[in-house]
Structures are given as structure tokens and as C-alpha cells.
From TrEMBL:
<feature type="domain" description="(S)-ureidoglycine aminohydrolase cupin">
    <location>
        <begin position="42"/>
        <end position="114"/>
    </location>
</feature>
<dbReference type="InterPro" id="IPR011051">
    <property type="entry name" value="RmlC_Cupin_sf"/>
</dbReference>
<dbReference type="InterPro" id="IPR008579">
    <property type="entry name" value="UGlyAH_Cupin_dom"/>
</dbReference>
<protein>
    <recommendedName>
        <fullName>(S)-ureidoglycine aminohydrolase cupin domain-containing protein</fullName>
    </recommendedName>
</protein>
<dbReference type="Pfam" id="PF05899">
    <property type="entry name" value="Cupin_3"/>
</dbReference>
<dbReference type="InterPro" id="IPR014710">
    <property type="entry name" value="RmlC-like_jellyroll"/>
</dbReference>
Amino acid sequence: MPVLVTASQLELHGDDLADWGFRPGAKEEGTCHLRGRMLSTANEVKTGIWECTPGAFDVLNRPNVESIVIIKGKVKLTDLSTGAEKVLGAGDCAVLEFGSSVKWEILETTRKFFVVAPVQTSSL
């Protein structure tokens, strides 16, 4: 297992992403086409690049924690418990907490860098 995993500008902005099909649960059929590339899955933590075409979907009762950095595009995230909305664009970051329910509205084809980590149930 490599000690250091890096992603160059070409990897972040290039076109070398795998076809991941359509997002299950998309609000309209034929929307939210996904592409991506996994950079690491070590220690149950998933790190990679994710891209989605315009459309909308909900992530209900998130079973993990996800940290994201938007590389390009525009997405509106709505907290389904409060109705609070936030539009994110290139350079913006967000943390999606365990148990949260969020509506994703992909306003422009969006590419993000993500880290998805399982929730630790034991105390330190």
C-alpha cells in the first residue's frame, strides 16, 4: 500500500474518469450521469474524484461522513431537516455529517474531490 497518494492537476481536471453510470435515486430518469476515479480505499476511507451532470437526488440519513472540495461546476445542497440551502462552486468545501439528510441539486456539471470516512463507534 502506498504511503502517499497524490492527484496531479491533470488528474483533477483531466478527462480520465471512469463511467459510473447514473445516480440511483435521481429525481428524473436519465439525469445525474456519474464519472469518477478512486484514489484510495485504504482503512475503509474512500478518496477520489466524482463528477455528476445536472439533476437532483437525496442522500437520506448519511451512514458516514463525507468531506468535499468542489473542483468545478455548481451544486446546491439543501439540509432536509432545516431547509437551509447553500450553493457551492469551484474552491468551496463542505462536510456532510453522519446522519444528515441532504438534497443535492447539480446546477452545472460538477466535479468534486471527496473523502468518505466510516463513523467510529468506539471512543478514543
